[in-house]
Amino acid sequence: MCFVWTGSLAFSQNGSINGKVKSGNEIVPYAKVSLMGTNHGVISDMNGNYVITNIAAGQYTLVATFIGFERHEEMISVLSNAKTTIDIDLKANQKSLDEVVVSGTMKPMSKLESAVPVEVYTPAFFRSNPTASVYEALSNVNGVRPQVNCAVCNTGDIHINGLEGAYTMVLIDGMPIVSGLSTVYGLSGIPQSLIERVEIVKGPASTLYGSEAVGGIVNVITKNPTNAPLFSADAFVTGWGEVNADIAGKFKKGDKVQSLLGVNYFNYCNKVDNNNDNFTDLTLQNRLSIFNKWNFKRKSNRIFSLAARYVYEDRWGGEMDWTPQYRGGDDIYGESIYTSRWELFGTYQLPLKEKVLFTFSANSHQQNSVYGDTWYIADQRIAFGQLTWDKKIGLRHDILSGVTMRYTYYDDNTPATSDFATALNMPSNTYLPGAFMQDEISLNEYNKLLLGIRYDNNSIHGNIITPRLNYKWHSKSKKSIVRLSAGSGYRVANVFTEDHAALTGSRTVVFLSDLNPETSWNGNLNVIQKAFTKKGLFMTFDFSAFYTYFDNKIFADYETNPNQIIYDNLDGYAVSNGVSLNVDLTYKNFSLLVGGTAMEVYSVSDGVKERQLLTEQFTGTWTLGYKFVKAGLKLDYTGNVYGPMLLPVLGENDPRPAESPWWSIQNIQLTKSFTNIKGLEFYGGVKNLLNWTPWKNMDANIIARTNDPFDKNVTFDTDGNAIATPNNPYALTFDPAYVYGPNQGIRGFFGFRYTFD
């Protein structure tokens, strides 16, 4: 049956056309088919069939459109009192969200066919709320929250479904580039002009990617030099004085070599103290990032690509009168971090009949930092190599197997890399060889099963095995999709590279025992339902339910002793579970993506259940857009909302609230494009429309004892606990770890984009 959205079905001597809408050998149901400049139009049925009747004889332009495919136009002739059959072959849109994903199974496949649910976000999504880094851009992704970990230096990480940033693995082109020491800094400086898309897998993925992928994956896919524009630029400034610029260009040498070069520069040097605590509200930063990617054409189109990135950053926050001459001293408090980092990664397809890929990466991260008078000098180097074999057996089995080796060198000036007995420096050298295999089994046209297992041998912790199982079903029309998954994960922790609070402020770090690897078991249900109306409204409902159970969970105890951070494996278990829903609506020039996640993250020890600190129980996001086509304008309204979370207060006398309020960051933007200057856009708007900051409506400062950041006037008892005195009535110590959201208020912004193909 076909649904007529305009036009008449009355019988006449006029002609008609009919046919089937396909893409290659696949039918395309519910596509819009119309004759340009007329009122004739229908929606194809679930089998891709369409019929348009009562057409006057003549020449017409036949148009077919459907989300995820390129617009199809062709000239046709209609004869009187005759039926004409015209089949339509739609081409998949290379920029479509449903085109290709790689993160779920480590090899390219259509998003629809993937047994692992993968969320894909294109540059168009991030342009609705321009930011200076990928870290900030993820704030509008449902279930993903950038967490600020320090109120002074504003370092942060990415939380997925309530799990801390140490559980999130960040990949660049599938390579584990950002980890360990770079977790809190590595997400800045990736030129957004070079990003093709960002893929997010929520839930453990240790079977394919190993340790650190317990909470999920953020995979930043950079552009292919072949498809990238010849030149692009994107720059903006804000009312606070932030300046961000992305510039990219490509060049080639003959027919065999193509290269893409990008530069990102960010600068903020304006001291602001709106909450009058004599500390900077926003960390001052000066950052330069250079990215270069090469593609080499080889025989039989075998893959060979090579990419490199260099990042330098100088950031500091602290008392308003701090200058570099006070760096590391105890006169004026400041947190100053110098970061120098390089990365190299690539893919090489071996000259074999079988598809065998060698992927490799290496990076070096050097950090020279001070937190008041505490020095933290660290050097981390990681080398990674992986050999994968992609083999199809018969019509049903698609096997991917591989072996990996990861070497990590880590050295710093803390007790983490010294011998407690001799006090001699002992850098950490960790070897992590592993092997994995997965079999994607096509049970029939509608059902797929994925079985996977990974084995790792950690040179410190020994053997670790992580299995997984994924199942996918889709309906004949492909409007309904169900995915089920179950499996295990593991994580090995390095406290000083993951928990910024272990270095900042005046708390002493205490280890109650040698930390053992965490293990987890998880289950996930994902249901997608697509719907449409005959008037052109397209809707997608994406529902997920998730559950993860942790053994040996590594936790930081901030509450037993307000002057200590006590690390240990949990004597009990921990759970992260919840549900989420995304709704994507498109109607003519209007689009809306709205989502919400309700979750509970807690631990149980000695029969006592405790909520996890700094974890909201509800989060919501939205991205609303409307195009004024004739005026060349687009309006974007984006935002997020977070429920209350428990906060790390300094004991029961701390005047700061032990729980955050509901809070929301909202933004609006207007973009102007020009029909006579292709590729040029100007944009501007307002960020944080509500002017929300964590210190609003608080009687106390966010940072405790800003008047005495070195605790020179704090009196301690024999156990190291602060004692209440006339000048310290709440028995507090200096503490910048009490922070849960950005401390930057309302500001305007203005920028431009230019792309030349």
UniProtKB/TrEMBL annotation:
It comes from the Bacteria. Residues 111-217 form the TonB-dependent receptor plug domain. PROSITE patterns: TONB_DEPENDENT_REC_3 (PS52016). It is found in: Cell outer membrane. GO terms for biological process: siderophore transmembrane transport. It is a multi-pass membrane protein. The keyword Repeat does not apply. GO terms for molecular function: siderophore uptake transmembrane transporter activity. Residues 274-689 form the TonB-dependent receptor-like beta-barrel domain. InterPro entries: Beta-barrel_TonB, Beta-barrel_TonB_sf, CarboxyPept-like_regulatory, Plug_dom, Plug_dom_sf, TonB-dep_rcpt-like. The keyword Protein biosynthesis does not apply. It comes from Putridiphycobacter roseus. One of its GO terms (cellular component) is cell outer membrane. This is TonB-dependent receptor. Keywords: Cell outer membrane, Membrane, Receptor, TonB box, Transmembrane, Transmembrane beta strand, Transport. Belongs to the TonB-dependent receptor family.
